[in-house]
Amino acid sequence: MKPQRVKTIRQLPIDGQALKRLIEAGLTWLRTNQQTVNSLNVFPVPDGDTGTNMVLTMQAAMDEISNSHETNFGKMAHSVAHGALMGARGNSGVILSQLWRGFARAVDHQEILDSALLAHGFALARDTAYKGVVRPVEGTILTVSKDIAAAAEKAEKYAIDPFDVLDEVVKEADLSVQRTPDLLAVLKEAGVVDAGGKGLFYILDGMLRFANGLPLDTALTTVQPLAAMTFENSLEAIEPGQDFEVVVDFQPANSLDLESFYSQLQEMGTSIQVGEGEGIYRMHIHVPTEKLYEPINYTRSLGTITKVSIENLIAQMEALGASKGSGGLTLAPVEPGQIAVVAVSPGSGISRVFASLGVAAIVEGGQTMNPSTQEIINAFENLPTDQVIILPNNKNIILAAQAAAGLTVKKVAVVPSRTIPQGLAAMMRLAPDNEFDEVVQEMTEALDSVESGEITTATRSVEIDGVAVQEGQTIALHNGQLVLAANSVEEACLGLLEKAHADHFELVTMFYGTDMPKTEVNRIADIVRDAYPEQEVEIQEGGQPHYQFIIAIE
Amino acid sequence: MGHIAIVTDSTADIPEELAERHNIHVVPNILVIDGRSLEDGRGISRQEFYASLPNMKAFPSTATASSGTYQHLYGRLFQEGFEQIISIHAASLLSGIFNAASLAAQAFGECVHVIDSHYVTLGLGFQALAAAEAALHESLESILALIEDVRRRVRVVAMLDTLEYVRRSGRVSWARAHLGELLQIKPLVEIRSGKVFRLGEERTRRKGIERLLRHLRDLGKLERLAILHTNAEDEALRILGELRSDLPAQSFCVNVTPIIGAHVGPNGLGFAAVIR
């Protein structure tokens, strides 16, 4: 991105190839700031990361056009929209794909983008995104899309070229994002701005920075709250040069110069994250084998190291491959004409239970890894029936499931399960030979027949719904609402069961996660059985990450 | 005495006094417990059977009465002066009874009409009862038509207290395919056209019974109703009591024959109903 290139892109007509470069710029800038967007998490739970979801959605759009020589702007925009839709992950990814869809419609078959067309594009993008959501909520990416459409309309009247419009749009996006906490109480309570809106800002800002010749690949130095750092290694995606993951906790001797800290680390490796909490800094980096000790030695030159952790990612990936191969899962055979169910599951034990209830296909995913629209489609496209029901089992996967339903010739319905217990309750109502609409209705009605509990560790300190949470505490969610913070898993379990009035129910099923040792599970199960002698308590291996327990009360 | 005899088998679950009143000839099936062969209804009561079922060393097996038994009965009925016999039996897809009876009927030419009811327990029983009620004054053709008419209107739905027995019996393919990871599970099933269909599951007994009742209420007005159970008489009577105002003239509770109940297990609940 050298200055002379600036002149080029701002002076040349904006055709299909220019759009490709702008998309790439938007994606690059979003990726650079991915962790910042991820850290804008309202709930203190390990959640589907908005930044990651939006990057993967934009990446899918980029993949769709990366080899295209199309010069027609409108046609290229449609390819972008298609790629985004197929790759959409999480609610923010789906809404982003809807924005692109509306934009593409506005520029249908247009050779070149001009200011008026761009303003029209933002307007249709806004309309399409609002229509794509059943109950639009203000203070989100939707509001930002509305505000920038208005700004574009105003700017278009005196703009000389589309970048003048984009200038105003980016300014307004920034302001609009800052206003989101005034519109959405949960944001204000959590002290954050809307993550999806912020992601949209970075995409547009990236395009503008590209046009202005500003760098896109060096992060504006970002520091996250320590507890918000999650090193979710999507292991399939490990590239050469990412042999080891190194995490160093340290106390800098002097105040840390983030700019130079980042640039030094960039010489050594990738996937750099820096977190800070109570004077301790945490640095995360992926490095090739030969540079394994460089980040440690470098950090030591800056202050006192308190902790170092090194993980061999290659070995982990191999182990994962092996366990995937052996983990046999017997899925329900489906006959033509029968109803097949596709369920999203975060863990092997939960997958087995879904399979035992007659699920025909499993999509791996959940809280921390939202599957894409395409992954959901792939799961059912080859089933020998054209009647399919999707159970997303997570509130952040419902939209992607609905997008998948709209992209196939098969008859597909989404039963909007927001938790694993809801998904299991719905599954109980599956009668694969009955009439489709009736079964969908039955399964949807079943969602409210169970109380859902989730036990996890708070990723940061916050106060929500009157519950004060300290980072690192165990927290309990009842039907998706934060209800208490506790100092142990057992305390959280008992507190949750009390809040859910488990004594009025018959059966408590506890799915334990990967980070729960079996002895600890048994000990807690005994405590729960003692506290609820009238209730049946069933313990199941869930295999989910991050959540010590997922609990069904019915 | 009419000129048409009605024969069925013990899987029809027709209460004894009703069978006697309507002169229905019921052929007992065979139950094999720990190597001992018993005629259904003799040697062990239904209550005793279900109470001891969970502790039986070997899974009890069942057998149909022999072709010879049917042939002997048909011969005796013709000797008694009947001119035609309607012999109606458990779904041929679920049991060999229909085959045994058909084989026996061959000796009597056109005079024995062996019918596959496509149902078991009172799903079959109500077809036989309707036939017997009409046998006194209706023609053979209209009785056969009536049986088909009742068959179209009969519904049999049940809640199993556990998957264990139906899976062990190996008669239902989906029960083998789905390995029942969850310990607490109450499958709901429906018999239709001689096959057992899965209607889904519930996690608790209370919800299972609620769902069963919902299926029953969805049927609307009824002509006949039997609440079926396997040693869950209190709950069956309670259900009957709750339905009191909506009950058809013919309604009763039945502790289901061990021939079927061995595959269901104790504490199952269900219904057989004929829609008006």
In short:
The complex is a heterodimer of chains A (554) and B (276). With 554 residues, chain A is of the alpha/beta class.
Give the topology, please.
The complex is a heterodimer of chains A (554) and B (276).
Chain A lengths: L2 H9 L4 H17 L1 H5 L11 H16 L7 H14 L3 H17 L8 H17 L9 H16 L5 H22 L1 H6 L4 H17 L12 E2 L18 E9 L5 H11 L1 E8 L2 E8 L6 H7 L2 E10 H14 L12 E7 L2 H9 L4 E4 L8 H9 L5 E5 L6 H8 L5 E4 L5 H8 L8 H11 L4 E7 L4 E3 L2 E3 L4 E5 L2 E6 L2 H11 L7 E6 L5 H14 L4 E6 L5 E7 L1
Parallel strand pairs in A: 1-3, 6-7, 6-8, 8-9, 15-16
Antiparallel strand pairs in A: 2-4, 2-5, 3-4, 10-13, 10-17, 11-12, 13-14, 15-17
Chain B lengths: L3 E6 L6 H6 L2 E4 L2 E4 L2 E4 L6 H7 L8 E3 L3 H13 L4 E6 L7 H9 L6 E5 L5 H14 L4 H14 E6 L4 H6 L3 H5 L8 E7 L2 E8 L2 H13 L4 E8 L3 H10 L7 E6 L2 H7 L4 E7 L1
Parallel strand pairs in B: 1-2, 1-6, 6-7, 11-12
Antiparallel strand pairs in B: 3-4, 3-5, 8-9, 8-13, 9-10, 11-13
Please, could you describe this protein's structure?
- The complex is a heterodimer of chains A (554) and B (276).
- Chain A folds into 4 domains: 3-211, Serine Threonine Protein Phosphatase 5, Tetratricopeptide repeat (Alpha Horseshoe); 224-320, Alpha-Beta Plaits (2-Layer Sandwich), CATH 3.30.70; 327-449, Rossmann fold; 451-553, Hypothetical Protein Tm841, Chain: A,domain 3.
- Chain A is built from 21 helices and 17 strands.
- Chain A has helices at 3-11, 16-32, 34-38, 50-65, 73-86, 90-106, 115-131, 141-156, 162-183, 185-190, 195-211, 258-268, 294-300, 313-326, 348-356, 373-381, 398-405, 420-427, 436-446, 489-499, 518-531, and strands spanning 224-225, 244-252, 270-277, 280-287, 303-312, 339-345, 361-364, 387-391, 411-414, 451-457, 462-464, 467-469, 474-478, 481-486, 507-512, 536-541, 547-553.
- In chain A, α2 (16-32) packs parallel to α5 (73-86) and α4 packs across α5.
- The longest helix of chain A is centred in the N-terminal third of the chain and has 22 residues, at 162-183.
- By secondary structure, chain B is α/β, with parallel strands linked by helices.
- Chain B folds into 2 domains: 4-152, Rossmann fold (3-Layer(aba) Sandwich); 154-275, Hypothetical Protein Tm841, Chain: A,domain 3, CATH 3.30.1180.10.
- Chain B is built from 11 helices and 13 strands.
- A 6-stranded mixed β-sheet of chain B has the order 10-9-8-13-11-12, sandwiched between helices. In chain B, strands 2-1-6-7 form a 4-stranded parallel β-sheet, with helices on both faces.
- The mean pLDDT of chain B is 90.
- Classes of the chains: A alpha/beta (554), B alpha/beta (276).
- Chains A and B meet through α15 and β16 of A and β10 and α9 of B.
